[in-house]
Structures are given as C-alpha cells and as structure tokens.
Automatic annotation (TrEMBL):
UniProt organism field: Stieleria varia
Role: Catalyzes the NADPH-dependent rearrangement and reduction of 1-deoxy-D-xylulose-5-phosphate (DXP) to 2-C-methyl-D-erythritol 4-phosphate (MEP).
Record pathway: Isoprenoid biosynthesis; isopentenyl diphosphate biosynthesis via DXP pathway; isopentenyl diphosphate from 1-deoxy-D-xylulose 5-phosphate: step 1/6
Gene from which the chain derives: dxr
Lineage of source species: Bacteria, Pseudomonadati, Planctomycetota, Planctomycetia, Pirellulales
Protein name in the entry: 1-deoxy-D-xylulose 5-phosphate reductoisomerase
One Gene Ontology biological process: isopentenyl diphosphate biosynthetic process, methylerythritol 4-phosphate pathway involved in terpenoid biosynthetic process
Catalytic activity: 2-C-methyl-D-erythritol 4-phosphate + NADP(+) = 1-deoxy-D-xylulose 5-phosphate + NADPH + H(+)
Cofactor(s) required, per the database record: Mg(2+); Mn(2+)
InterPro entries (alphabetical): DXP_reductoisomerase (IPR003821), DXP_reductoisomerase_C (IPR013644), DXP_reductoisomerase_N (IPR013512), DXPR_C (IPR026877), DXPR_C_sf (IPR036169), NAD(P)-bd_dom_sf (IPR036291)
Binding annotation for NADPH: T15, G16, S17, I18, N48, N138, E140, G223
Ligand binding (Mn(2+)): D169, E171, E239
Record bears the keyword Magnesium: yes
Limits of the 1-deoxy-D-xylulose 5-phosphate reductoisomerase N-terminal domain: 9-146
Amino acid sequence: DLQRTSCNVAVLGATGSIGTATLDVLKHLQATDSQCDWRLWAASGHTNVDKLARELVAMGSPDTRLVMSEPEAAACWQSAHAERDSEPKHQVLTGPDALVKVASEPAVDTVVAAIVGRAGLESTLAAIEHGKRVALANKETLVVAGSLVAESLNEGRKSASGAEILPVDSEHSAIFQCIASHPSAVKKLILTASGGPFREATVQQMRDATPESALAHPTWDMGRKISIDSATMMNKALEIIEARWLFDLPAEAIEVVVHPQSIIHSMVEFTDGSVIAQLSPPDMRMPIQLALTHPRRLPGIAPSLDRAQRWDLQLMPADLERFPALRLGFEVARVGGTAGAVVNAANECAVALFLDGQIRFTDIAQVCQTVLNHHNFESTPTLSRLLELDRWARDEAQRCCAAST
Ligand code: NAD
Ligand code: MG
C-alpha cells in the first residue's frame, strides 16, 4: 500500500502510569491502524528493568531498545537475562545521557515524554531541538523552562524542523481540541479540576491527612507524585503554568473551575461569550492516542460515555483559601522567569518529605511559597541557571522543613 506510513515512537517513562497507558495505545494502533506502522523504537524505565522487559515481550517488540537511567539496574538485569536465552535480546542503553540520546535519535519520529518531574527536562528539550513530535505528559518541563521550550519551538518553526508539542495532559488536550475552532478569538481557557480527595475537607482535616488518604484520588489512577499534587491542587497550579506556555496566553486569561466528575476535561470561552468544552470518560488513553495520531482521529480503546445513565455534571468555583497552591500557580504563570523552576523543585522535595512522613500535608504549599519568597527572581534565566536554582530550591525546601519541625 503506497499510502502506508510508519512512525517510530520512543516512550520515555514507559513503566509509569502514562507510559503503561501509552503501550496499551500503541498495541491498539498496531492492531487496528491500516495507514501507519507504529513501532516502539525505544522504551525507558528508571530502575524497574524487569517490568519493562516483560511488557516488551508481551507486546512482541523484540527490537525495542531499552533505556535505563541507572547503569547498575541495567547491568543487574543483563546478567540475569543472559541466562534466559529463550527471550529476545534487547539492545540496552544506559547512563545519564541515554535519554537525551534516544530523544535526539534521527530514526525517532515521536517522543512520548512521560517521565515524572524535572528528571524529564533534558530529554524533552532534546526532542524538541531535534524536530520531534513530542506527546507531552511531563508538565514539569514547561513549569521549569517554559520560555526556553517556547523559544526552541519557535526556532523549529523557522527552520521547519517539524518540532511540535501535542499535549497529553487531559485538560490541555481538551483545550487544544476546543481552541481549533477559532484560535484567534480566544478569551479564556477554563481548566477543570476534580478537586482531588480533599475537595470538601476542612483545613484541619488536611493538616491531619495521611499519605494513604492523600493518594486515594476519586476519579484518576495515577503515579504517586501527581496524586499528591492533585490533593494539594498543586497539579492544577502546574497546569495553569503549562497552559500559559502551551497556548501562549497570559495568566489573566486562565481560570480554574472544580468539576468532580472529571468528564468535562476543560473549556475555552471565545470573544463572543460562547464556551466550547471537550467531554470524554476519565481515561488517559484518549488524549495519548490523539497526541500520537493527530490530525487523524481513530477508533479508541477507552469505553465511551454511558448515556443510558443520568448525567450529573457539576461545576463550582475553586477555593483559593483552602488550596493556596492554586494562588501560587497563578502567581508563577504571571511572573514567569525563575519562579516556575523554584516552585517546581520545592514542590517535588516537599511531596517526597510528606510521603516519607516528615512534614504535614498542609506544609507542602507553605514550603513552596516560602522558598519562592526566599529566591532572587530573574526574568530571563538560562538553562544552566534554572538547573542551579532547581538544586538550590530543593536544599532550601529541606532547610525550611527541618527548621519548622
Ligand atoms: P509515574 O510515577 O507512574 O511514572 C513515572 C515514570 O518516570 C516511570 O516510568 C519512572 O521509571 C520514570 N522516572 C521517574 N524518575 C525518573 C528519573 N529520575 N529518571 C528517569 N526516569 C524516571 O508517573 P505518571 O503518573 O505516569 O506521570 C508521568 C508524568 O505525566 C508526570 O509529569 C505527570 O504530571 C504527567 N501526567 C500524568 C497523568 C496520569 O494520569 N498519570 C495525567 C496527566 C499528566
Ligand atoms: Mg491533568
């Protein structure tokens, strides 16, 4: 078939919640897409090589390169694996530069950026610099270095490199879909938030929250870090900043409304007052697939909305008093510069301390605000400056927590 194309995909963070959902989507596309050969060119895990290798065997993907950021984990796996010679031999890439190398590889067409946190930054930037389509789940990259990403995309447009970001985050995928109708007549982006497990909790209840109760998200099944972010609503704060860079709009044009059912994934208000929303069941495989196949829309694997049941879709204002992280999100989106890198690093550190039982749930947003207040703001930082501040903010967050307990 002359019409048939192919697409080599590198899934970075393949062992996580988004990564696993992406492998599901790829299997589905391999089985059903008559126009394109979907090939899993590489898949990365951090330490859990075994799980990744088993996934690839299950997918019938013997040629997929395995990327392990920890050489010890890879060496350990390779020696165990050498004894089981019935299994296919994957090429294994290791070391701190392996992710960047894969993301820059000429043979790769699409990079799925599904690593959690600042750890995904360099590989995501490399993918954009090398003209890839980036299916972006790793919102922290935009929070830390949104202006550099925007710059790099601009360069890519000038040289027609093909670099583009397709949002995987469900809210941003929704906005991307809604905006397409009249991109130059946008008035407001309205991000929906489930409100997380503490949507109706009092401040006192949140002070006493345990990691277990904070991890129990009502509508989404996600990695640990983003689950805690959802509970503090820092996730929505990061998404405000993500939206600011993805859609090049000021913080003033972004709103948050609480929508507990997670069916309306976000909305766009246009200049004439008309609001367009995107609805689908809460299943990340929908936005992942669209990010891979856009501009094509293909049959998906997620079940569709059940219209035989009564629909109760609620929308309510967000409470910036009980969820101070939200206020921080608007502030960072407004000032830009070094603020995102600092708040992101403080948050990553505070979330780890909370999960480790060392600080209270309500300390997380407090620590982020304090570290932001302590830093010397710069409006046009370089990448190396941002990385330096990332390390400083983690240390500063540790110091704040040690001082307050
Ligand atoms: P997860 O914890 O389930 O998976 C994280 C992945 O990153 C794993 O594959 C892990 O091996 C890898 N990783 C972790 N630390 C690493 C490091 N230092 N170096 C290299 N690899 C590392 O997380 P997740 O829920 O899949 O989230 C991934 C990203 O997607 C996050 O940025 C999150 O905000 C975003 N996101 C997730 C969802 C969701 O439904 N889970 C929705 C929207 C956006
Ligand atoms: Mg989201």
